[in-house]
Structure formats: structure tokens, C-alpha cells
Amino acid sequence: GKRAEAYQAYQELISDFAEAFEGMRRLAPDALTLAQDLIAATYYSDALEVLRDPALRDDPRYKAVRAQALFSLGRYDEAQEAYQNWLATSPEDTTARMGLARSLGRLGRLEEALEIYRDLDTAESRLAQAEILESRGEIEEALALYRDLPYPVAWWRAASILEREGRAQEALPFYARLGSAPIGLSDDAAYRLYVLARRLDDREMQSQAVSLLQDATSSFFPLLLGDGSFLAPVASAPARAGDAILAKVRALEILGLDELARRELRMAARFNYSAGIDLSMAQALAQRGRVQDAQQIAEQSLRELDPAPLAFWRLAYPKAYRREVEEAAQEFGLDPLLVWAVMRQESRYNPEAVSRSYAQGLMQLIPSTRDMIARQLGMRLRPFDVFNPRINVRLGAYYLRFVLDQFEGDVDYAVAAYNGGPGNVARWLEDPLVVTKEDFYRWMDLSETREFVQKVMFNYRVYQWLEVMQAS
Length: 472
Fold this sequence. Notes:
Helix content: 55-70%
Strand content: under 5%
Strand order of the largest sheet: 1-2
Structural class: mainly alpha
């Protein structure tokens, strides 16, 4: 009877599970709401299919939703017409005018697009103007707009232009502003501020960059201020707790109620608010092969405890599928810690993980890469073999070795190639602005790959630290 709550749950799932679409279609309050929510989840073709129903055309939302779906699919001629139809009934609608201008811009009709943007004169339209001006080489005009906009993307673009124009000193204030903003790029910007300020011998800006980076405790970049190693303070282990819960769990398991026992462990960690219970429950889950559940509890504890006991670090960075990883690492001459670092970021140790780009399994291999590796190894794969941990880890380890060899054993470049492809890495390395690895981190132009490299390298440093802690 809770249709709205169920619909919302399917909405949250659809980004990762295409099967949720059927649930959304069944429970949607109306067809146009469904189409809007599908667009928000980037299911543009499905949204357009929903809009085929002629009965929807009298709904005031119809024209707007259809125009947005067409634009998102790259059908700009049709989108332009759809936005014009929308404007015929709502001539002052800012969203419709922006949509029309964007469609015209994609069709190469830049002057018409600029005329609309100038007439609108909003922050959003000024950003779009600046992007067109930059694309036409009208650098000073673009910079004048970027400087005063409230959007971090505008500051990033301005800094990029200034660096490419050889005006690094002028780029520093933009990086400082970005480094102070609560955005995903803040650590990238703070590190770039540090690199440029050091090269320019700007002590004040360099000091500001160091301060910003010291606040970015979960970022890879602060490690580069030192020797690149990870180091964290460690608390004493909490007192043992949760024996009664563990006894109940064992009783459930004797009765064959394993799933209920697992749920008991997870709920105890979630609702008891005790480091001792969290640790006992996470360890019990890990002992039962529930690595993902244990890892999630431990990761939450690391966010809440400062310092945290070493046991939480080990559970948050587990040596999952140890036999499979160590065998594959030995076969292909890899550091197994690097394999785990990649696995953690790619799948969070979930052997059944499937991404929106259909990357699959523990090491998240897309079908074309998977098939290429299988041919190289002389393997004949059945449809679901990619979800077998031993097979998936072996395929992923082979590819990791392949990209390491392509980039002369450089781990950063290999990790970037694992995600973004060797061709892109080669292109970035040929950029005249990429003189050192410090520059490489900045000029990767795929944001997903840039973040992937930072996360994997951070994981790798933590795994290395845990090895040192174990040895000592």
C-alpha cells in the first residue's frame, strides 16, 4: 500500500539496476512524471517512448519533457523544433529559451545562440556565452564572463585558459577559490595551486594551498606534499562487546537462518552506536565471507572515529578474494596490493557488480576489453564467467599488467589507462603543458578518470601502510 515509497525506492535503484525501470513504470503516479524521472536517470530513449502516448499531449508538461529528452539524445534538429513549439505557447519561458539556444549551438548556429544568451542575461546564459566565445578563440571576452560567474566550472575553465596562455600567476586566485569551495574538484584545485605557487615562488599562495590540502584528509593529494606515503594515527582496540548478539546469530545459523543471522549482525552495527559492537559485528561478517557488509561498517567507523583502531582500517581495506588475487598477481608479476586497490574502487569487492557502461565483476571489465583479454589468454568464456571471482580477477590482472607494460611500469599512468584507456593517457602525456607527473594529474580531461586515479592511488597507499603496520 506504500506506492509512493516503493516508487521512490525504484528511482534510487535505477541508476545501478536497469530492472528497476519496470517497477517505476508500474508505480509511477502518471506518465509524464515517469518520463521526467527517467530523464533525470539518463534513460532518455525510455522517456521518449513513454511520451508516444497521444493522450499526453494536452498536459502542460509534455512539450518541456519531450524537448529535454530529444536534446539529451543528441537529436538537436528535433529538439530545436520542440523548444520552438514550447515557446509558441510560453514565449517568455527562460528554460525553453535556454534549451533552444543550446540546440542552436549544437547545430553550429552560434550567432543565433549567442543572441538568445545575451538577451536572457542570466548567470547560466553568461556561462553558455563564455563557452561559445572560448571555442571561437575569443579568449579575453570569455575570461571576462568566467571571472564573475558564481559557478566553479567557470573558475576551472578560466584557470585552464590562463595556464594555456602562459599566465599561470593569474590562474592562482581561481585555483584558490576552487580549493576553498565545497566541491569535488577542491582537492585537485588546491594541489594545482600548490604546484604553481611553488614554481612561481609565491610563498603566500603556497602556504594557502598547504592549508587547504591539510583539510582534505581523505584525498590522495596531501600525501604528495611529503614522500607520498600514507600514515594515520591509530587508537587502541575497543573493549570486546556484543557477545549476546553473536550468541543469537549462532543460534540462527544452527537453525539454517543464515540470511537472518547476517541481517542481525548488520542491524546491530547500525543501531547500537558502539565502537566495540561495530567491530565485533564487522569481524563476524568478515569471518562469514560477507566482506562487503564488513567493509561498509568499517568505513563508516573510520568516518566517525579519529583516531580509529587499526582493526577498522583492515576491515575497510580487506584482502578480499585473497587466493584469487595472489595467484593472478603472481602469474602476471603484479603487486597484489595494487590489484586490491583497483578492486576497491571498481566494485567495492562485489563480484556481481555491473556499471551503467556494463563493466562487470570485481575488476569491472567492459565486454570489449574482457573479450580481448580472453582471446589473448586463449580462454573461452561462458556468459556468466565474468562474475566468477577467479576468472574476473585473472582477466583484470592481465589488463593491469598490459597497461603497466605500455607505460614502462608507471603505476599512475597505468591506473589512468585502466579506466580511461591507453590512447587517452598517451594523448594527455603529449600535451605541451604536461611536463611532470604533477601536470598529468591536472590535465587529464576525463573527470571520471582523474577521480579514479586519485582514489586508486589513495587505496594503494593505505594498503601499503597496512602492510608496514603488520610487519612491525
